[in-house]
Specification:
- There is one protein chain.
- It is globular, with a radius of gyration of 23 Å.
- The longest helix is centred in the middle third of the chain and has 21 residues.
- It has 409 residues and is α/β, with parallel strands linked by helices.
- The chain has 16 helices and 15 strands.
- The strands form 2 sheets. The protein has an 8-stranded mixed barrel, surrounded by 5 helices. Strands 2-1-3-4-5 form a 5-stranded parallel beta sheet, sandwiched between helices.
- The protein folds into 2 domains: 136 residues, Response regulator (Rossmann fold, 3-Layer(aba) Sandwich); 261 residues, TIM Barrel (Alpha-Beta Barrel), CATH 3.20.20.450.
């Protein structure tokens, strides 16, 4: 979205700082800017604004209602406004508030330290256009959770399909692989987000059939790309509840063999954000997949149970770093140290490394400096249907050339 179309709310108690932010935004092309001196004034401005506020730039340390309390109120009101934090406080404290904001469910674009700069502000505002759904499209309404009857009907009529998010090689910029993500194209309700149906399907024992359909349709997409000479690797997510089933790996292998997809082209991603309920069967299934030549990726690394122990007992071939350690890390010393340590561990264990949540050229360049191998995120592409994947690859190549030119300059 063009910055001229966005409405900004500046929440800052210091008059000089407000004028600086207003001037920076105006120089970037912003037209609609509202001021507020503290959290109370900000809430009133949000309520009375003649047009919806898109981005709220919030100072943390203010008299009256400070920035943290304002964020809590925004979360409780389920506001769709995006937030940029602005503060002169210590970086670890700012990082803690960032984590708090995301935990509340607030859409946080990031944080910038005072004094603000035009480049820092521009980079954070640019992230607004990368959010999956804009405020204007959502209309402030939430989609109704599907019924079990709808889920069963969707499985019976195969309404689920994989969408693919490209992963790029940080050394060359070339698209190396993709992650297959389940999407539900409802004939009447349109696209239903996965957070509304995947937990329900896991709870009611439908996730195995969903995975089977996604694996089969992913294999079909891979075959089409292969006939064009494009042999991408594809990652497929596995549910931990499925891995506890005896013989589950053999079923996956049969489907992929039927479609003649070589094992080296498939990576199964296993989240570490939950504990394995049936360790022996899970380990047998994972070991069998690895023995047959399929890759195994530990997803969301660093956010779940016993990360080191998981790496020791499961034959992973890839370590996937959670977006919490990636997005905006170039300006966060503490997060950078954690990221660097995880990448060093991956290198020593001879694991491929993938960073998800790459949203800006700054993230890309920083990961490249740390010798991360692959990147995934909205900078490269959002998830797209199989028919649009090659077009997304072409679009990324043009953007990558522009990023390289800007970096060289």
């Amino acid at each position: 979205m063009n910055i001229q179309e966005l409405h900004f709310l500046l929440v800052e108690d210091h008059d000089f700082q407000r004028r600086v932010l207003r001037r920076l935004l105006t120089n970037l092309g912003a037209v609609h800017i509202t001021d507020a001196a503290d959290g109370h004034a900000a809430l009133a401005a949000l309520e009375d604004a003649p047009r919806p506020v898109d981005i709220c730039i919030v100072d943390l340390n203010m008299p009256g209602m400070d920035g943290m309390e304002l964020i809590r109120h925004l979360a409780e009101a389920r506001s769709k406004v995006s937030v940029i934090l602005s503060s002169a406080l210590d970086r670890p404290l700012i990082a803690s508030v960032e984590t708090m904001a995301r935990a509340y469910g607030v859409h946080l674009l990031g944080a910038m330290e005072k004094p603000a700069t035009a480049q820092a502000l521009q980079d954070l505002v640019a992230l607004y256009g990368m959010r999956p759904q804009s405020r204007r499209k959502s209309g402030g309404t939430s989609m109704q959770e599907p019924s079990l009857e709808e889920l069963r009907a969707a499985l019976a009529t195969q309404q689920f399909e994989p969408w693919f998010q490209p992963k790029a090689d940080l050394r060359s910029g070339e698209i190396h692989s993709a992650e297959a993500l389940a999407r539900w194209r409802h004939p009447e309700r349109g696209m239903i987000p996965p957070n509304l149906f995947i937990p329900l399907m896991e709870e009611h024992g439908m996730i195995d059939e969903l995975t089977a359909q996604i694996v089969a349709r992913t294999a079909e997409a891979w075959r089409i790309w292969a006939t064009r000479g494009q042999h991408y690797k594809v990652s497929i997510n596995l549910s931990l509840s499925s891995l506890s089933l005896p013989g589950y790996a053999e079923g996956l292998i049969r489907v992929l063999e039927q479609h003649e997809v070589p094992p080296r082209n498939i990576v199964f991603e296993v989240t570490e954000s939950a504990a394995m309920s049936d360790l022996p069967h899970s380990l047998e299934n994972l070991a069998r997949l690895r023995m047959k030549g399929y890759g195994l990726s530990i997803d969301d690394y660093g956010t779940g149970y016993s990360s080191m122990q998981q790496l020791l007992r499961i034959p992973f071939s890839e370590l996937k770093l959670d977006r919490a350690f990636v997005t905006g890390t170039s300006g966060d010393h503490a997060k950078a140290l954690v990221l660097s340590s995880a990448l060093a561990l991956a290198h020593e264990l001879k694991l491929e490394s993938v960073a998800e949540g790459v949203e800006s050229p700054a993230d890309w360049h920083f990961l490249n400096q740390l010798n991360c191998r692959y990147a995934q995120g909205y900078l490269i592409s959002k998830p797209v249907p199989a028919a649009e994947f090659c077009s997304a690859v072409t679009t990324w190549r043009r953007l990558y050339a522009e990023i390289n030119q800007e970096n060289a300059a």
